[in-house]
Amino acid sequence: MIIDTQLQMSAKQPVTGTANSTNTIDIGPSLGALYTPDMVVPFLVRETVTAAGAATVTFQVIAGDTPDMATPQVILSSAAIPKADLVRGKVVYLRVPETTRGTYPKAMRYLAARYIVNNGPLTAGSFDAWLAPWTGIEQNTAYPASPRVK
Question: What per-residue confidence (pLDDT) applies to 15?
Answer without folding.
Answer: 97
